[in-house]
Amino acid sequence: MAIKRHEVGPRLSQAVVHGNTVYLAGVVADGADTKEQTTKVLAKIDSLLTACGTNKSKLLSTTIYVTDMRNFADMNAVWDAWVDPKNTPARATVEAGLANTKYLVEIMCTAAVD
Amino acid sequence: MAIKRHEVGPRLSQAVVHGNTVYLAGVVADGADTKEQTTKVLAKIDSLLTACGTNKSKLLSTTIYVTDMRNFADMNAVWDAWVDPKNTPARATVEAGLANTKYLVEIMCTAAVD
Amino acid sequence: MAIKRHEVGPRLSQAVVHGNTVYLAGVVADGADTKEQTTKVLAKIDSLLTACGTNKSKLLSTTIYVTDMRNFADMNAVWDAWVDPKNTPARATVEAGLANTKYLVEIMCTAAVD
Lengths: 114, 114, 114
What we know:
By secondary structure, chain A is α+β, with helices and mostly antiparallel strands. Chain A has one domain: CATH 3.30.1330.40. In chain A, about 25% of the residues lie in helices and about 35% in strands. A six-stranded mixed sheet of chain A has the order 1-2-3-6-4-5, covered by helices on one side. Chain A is globular and about 40 Å long. The interface of A and B includes residues 60, 62 and 79 of A.
């Protein structure tokens, strides 16, 4: 099974396709609040999935990290409007610190690339 | 490779089968303490695995989130009694906040469905 | 698809190979500081990957937990020197508590075993 990496940096790649599965990096984005950051994170995930020849209806699993669970509803409002409601992934959301204090949300996905 | 989703909600699915692999959502459960919650979480995982045509002896990987590492031993006591000791998954356990303060433990698994 | 487990304990296995994918446990190591622990963790990951017939150039996805994001740069210094720069995995790093307060970093990887 071939491995194809996208947006390869010396520390990490933004997406790694192995066989029929793609692993995305944890995605963060600038923004004034959780809703703006989540909107930009999900747009970046759309872009990565497209580059890998797939889309959000093929999401398999997602882990969402928020720095403050008080922002859970704001993150979910954007998520719920974005995700394909008939093809939702397995998901966990936990509260954890992120690499830079300006970030409020980080989302890491796995998707099918069939 | 087909994707089959179980207990599909508009936000997340409880289980997503892709080829020979199933991804479960992070599972939480009500309960008075970590032991009771972990017992119920693992029963729910058993039920999801059964629905996907597999069982705990096929677990591949597990991430466990506890809200307070002082409950690590209680979680492990229930886990150790439940898991198939000859077929244990790769596992990580970390301390992180969960979506609702009533929850003390959340468990997210991947399993084979061969 | 066969499942092959390595370093199987009654609670968890250090590595689980399923088809062409290997799931490693979260790896921790003793050490006086983040750099020493990360060095030892990555050496252990090398060893596990070798036992599974693969190596770090086949990494697919990695989640790194640090107990204090102030140690992010130290972890990255060791990571950057270790990882294959043309074959980097998808990666997320978050701040979370670990099972024992002596540990500063825990790394969980998935790799191809083609």
